[in-house]
Design brief:
The chain is α+β, with helices and mostly antiparallel strands and about 190 residues long. It has helices at about 1-30, 70-75, 125-135, 175-185; strands at about 85-90, 90-100, 115-120, 140, 150, 155-160, 165-170. The protein has one domain. The protein has a seven-stranded antiparallel sheet with strand order 1-2-3-7-6-5-4, with helices on both faces. Helix 2 packs antiparallel against helix 4.
Length: about 190
């Protein structure tokens, strides 16, 4: 019992900056509306057993650039099928894979530990959003990943490739290695 309480407390402390960053980004960027109470919706082509990205009819999405099995490997445990949020974060909508300790009904618009969050922005505004977030954090450049990449210093990695920007957050301690692996897997699908 005491071990579980310590683990939960440690996870909450580790993920607090992620939640704060998500709230700041949601409140501080134009066109964003708080939607923490919005019900979650499943992405159109996701299934509980999918291990390959959903086939994108015309363009990639936040839920198609990372697979369920890749998210599971990054988190170090099985994750549920992805849920697509409703709130806009840095120009895109988050797709979230939850680990087994996340309570049912948790909104994908709120960052929590034990999850993998993916936000993809494509088109002419991708670079704008990539630079916008970089200006708000203690960005640490990462070489050899996309056209440009940086770690925000505590919660997520951002990668720009052409006219696509992906931001990935893995809700574990020492998350950079897991996030880089997911970004490398996502690049060809962007």
């Amino acid at each position: 019992m005491k071990l579980a309480w310590c683990r939960d407390r440690r996870a909450a402390v580790v993920m607090m900056p992620v939640a704060v960053a998500a709230l700041v980004a949601a409140c501080g960027s134009p066109g964003h509306s708080p939607a923490a109470a919005a019900p979650a919706s499943k992405p159109p082509a996701a299934t509980a057993t999918s291990s390959a990205p959903a086939a994108a009819a015309s363009s990639p999405s936040s839920c198609s650039v990372v697979t369920q099995s890749e998210a599971s490997a990054a988190l170090g445990q099985q994750v549920a099928a992805p849920l697509l949020g409703k709130a806009t974060v840095e120009g895109g909508v988050a797709c979230v894979f939850y680990g087994p300790d996340v309570p049912a009904g948790t909104s994908p618009d709120v960052a929590v530990p034990d999850s993998v969050r993916v936000v993809l922005v494509t088109g002419a505004d991708a670079k704008k959003w990539f630079d916008n977030y970089r200006s708000k954090v203690n960005a640490q450049p990462i070489s050899g990943l996309g056209d440009e990449a940086y770690y925000d210093g505590y919660a997520s990695i951002s990668v720009l490739q052409g006219d696509a920007y992906v931001r990935i957050a893995v809700g574990i301690a020492n998350n950079l290695t897991a996030e880089e692996a997911l970004a490398r897997d996502a690049l060809p699908r962007m």
